[in-house]
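Handoff note, outgoing to incoming analyst
You'll be picking up this chain. Sequence as last confirmed:
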Amino acid sequence: MKYKPKRKGSGLEFKTFEGESGSVYTVLRTPKGAFHVLVETEATAAADDCGAKKGLTRHRWESLWKKQ
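Most recent structure output, in case you need it:
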């Protein structure tokens, strides 16, 4: 079986930006130049929105992480 050589160079680059609204954005750029944007949100609210059971924020995310 012949294997392709691994790609060389950097992986994902990221920077954070604060919008005029006060929202914080994490922007990822792929090696091919595509951009992906994540917006910061409150971790407990996000866990609740994803269906986590009540508890400490860390426990909520740990339970969700194990489900995936």
